[in-house]
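Structure (tokenized):
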């Protein structure tokens, strides 16, 4: 259930950015499968691996990609051996989104901002604070090449 807060005048204000319900093992299994199926169907070849993790009421989605074609030049710029650069790139996740669970079809969304190195709440493209895991994946994956 979404938490709210009481402001100075003792008015309850709905807060979709806190609370949520713990994610059961069954819901974790269903959610992970839905995300992976959606990624395979709509983003095949874009990612080498998708990682879905759960903690309390939160679900984290990370993606892994192959190094870019200009890896040799980038490795030189970083002053690291090419093999080390490629291995590091392959093993470093791109944080896509964090979801807060309210119901199987009702998830709150936070987008990872690398500038602040934290998840920032955002609304879904349809203008709501809540959406599905597939819609959330689209938000995160849509910003990657």
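Design, position by position:
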């Amino acid at each position: 259930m979404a938490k709210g807060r009481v402001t100075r005048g003792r008015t309850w204000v709905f807060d979709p950015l806190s609370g949520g319900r713990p994610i059961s093992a069954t819901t974790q299994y269903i959610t992970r499968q839905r995300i992976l199926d959606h990624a395979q169907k709509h983003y095949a070849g874009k990612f080498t691996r998708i990682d879905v993790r759960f903690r309390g009421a939160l679900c984290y989605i990370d993606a892994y990609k192959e190094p870019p074609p200009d890896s040799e030049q980038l490795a030189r710029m970083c002053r690291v051996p090419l093999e080390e650069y490629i291995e590091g790139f392959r093993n470093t996740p791109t944080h896509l989104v964090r979801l807060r669970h309210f119901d199987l079809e009702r998830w709150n969304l936070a987008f990872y901002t690398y500038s602040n190195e934290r998840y920032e709440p955002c609304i879904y493209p349809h203008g709501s604070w809540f959406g599905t895991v597939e819609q959330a994946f689209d938000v995160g994956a849509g910003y990657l090449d």
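Reviewer-requested clarification: Residues 25-43 form the longest helix (19 residues). Strands lie at 2-6, 12-19, 49-55, 58-64, 94-103, 106-113, 118-122, 130-131.
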